[in-house]
Design a protein that fits this description.
By secondary structure, the protein is α/β, with parallel strands linked by helices. It is about 55% helix and about 15% strand. Helix 5 crosses helix 6.
Length: about 140
């Protein structure tokens, strides 16, 4: 089974009902990955998602709903990866090798740690490869 990793922006759009076509595309992707049982996110993604979906969107998600969805992630077949100290060194290597930002390097490293073949994001170049990991943009694919 091919693991698919969601970046924060895609997860936010999946829950931001006012995001128009981005919401529709991200929600369909989220539902498919959940149904297929091959989704992965990092603790960083979930932390950023909570902050963004409760404070930075036009129609914030209620904290009770956030709690519900975090429990869904914890109880479901979603893989949640958490960086350890050695993962920080991997991220620095990714920064140097691919000339990426720290936060993007940490996302790429966590997607690789999860064994993902696909990283869904709009923040990196669609089609870009990081070893076996391929970046895809759900709003272009």
């Amino acid at each position: 089974m091919s693991v698919e990793f969601l970046d924060t922006n895609v997860l936010v759009y999946a829950f931001d009902r006012l995001a128009g076509s981005r919401h529709d595309a991200a929600k369909a992707l989220f539902q498919r990955i959940t149904r297929d049982g091959n989704g992965a996110v990092s603790l960083q993604v979930l932390q950023e998602w909570v902050n963004t979906i409760t404070r930075k969107v036009r129609e914030p998600l209620a904290l009770g709903d956030v709690t519900y969805w975090l429990q869904v992630f914890l109880a479901s077949n979603w893989q949640i990866v958490t960086p350890g100290a050695s993962d920080l060194l991997v991220a620095v290597d990714i920064m140097e090798r691919w000339q990426s930002s720290w936060w993007d390097a940490l996302i790429v490293g966590m997607a690789q740690a999860a064994g993902a073949q696909i990283l869904w994001t709009e923040d990196l170049n669609a089609g870009q490869n990081f070893g076996e990991l391929t970046v895809r943009n759900p709003f272009r694919d």
